[in-house]
Amino acid sequence: MTTIAILRPTDRMEESLELARKLGFDTVFASPIDLRTNDTPEFSAFLQSLANGDVDMAILTSSMSVKSTFELARKHGQVEELSRGLRQIQMIAIGSGTAKTAEAEWIKVETLPDKFTAEGLVQLLAKRRIAGKQVVILRSDQASEILTKGLKSSGAVVQEIEVYKLTKVKTGRPLLDMFYKGIRGEIDVFAFTSPLSARSFIDEAKKHYSDEEVDDMLDCAVVAAIGEPTKKLLEDTGVRVDIVPKEATVEMLMHAIADAVREGTV
Questions:
Q1: CATH architecture entry for 3-32+169-263
Q2: Phi-psi bin for 118: left (phi > 0), alpha (psi -120 to 50), beta?
Q3: Which residue among 101, 104, 134, 225 is buried most deeply as judged by most CB within 10 Å?
Q4: Taking the model in full, what pTM does it have?
Q5: pLDDT digits (tens, 9 = 90+) for 55-113
Q6: 189-192, strands of its sheet edge to edge
Q7: CA 244 from chain center: how many Å?
């Protein structure tokens, strides 16, 4: 049986393990990062701007950005107001997974393919004559600035709202077990689900083992990245990436790994 290491936040453990089991994987799970909603004065101002009709477009960058936005609205007691406001403006979701999460909240969105780079997204949105438009990007505190800078260069008035934060967590037993099994060659596939989780995993592993041991561990296994940003981070640190799914969702990542294992291409 193929053993796969899944690196995701702890609150995604059960769904990750269930999906892996359905696909016939033996699974090792650990979380090198933590996700937390981020309540800020900027979010409160966004709710007010939305109510005043001062927002033309909102861009949802991930499923977590959708969940965090609604969680924050619930905290403020303004879920209905948020939903009503979002239905009145142009909504864009980057990726099908993000779109499904938004639609579960009864928000109709336009889906942009996951395979677009940030530069490609900027070029696509610039064709829509966004000069002078009030655009809000709902994102994490670790997201790239390329989209924001590109939209501003096209004349849009852009506001970034960091609705959730990604932070490294203290190395605990699950990560230590993953390092140990990986170094011993007991993990066949490493599945990285974000640039920060990849960076954190490698940094923490090299605190416990030599650079050469960690490099060999990843070189001897199949390495899968959820999307282009994660792939770039891994390759920039010298890690070969074998699998990137067509859509940047965990489900598509796991199915891409299962297909590659079944076809013997990795």
A1: 3-Layer(aba) Sandwich (3.40)
A2: alpha
A3: 225
A4: 0.79
A5: 999 999 888 899 999 999 999 999 999 999 999 999 998 877 888 899 999 999 987 76
A6: 26-30, 3-7, 189-192, 222-225
A7: 14
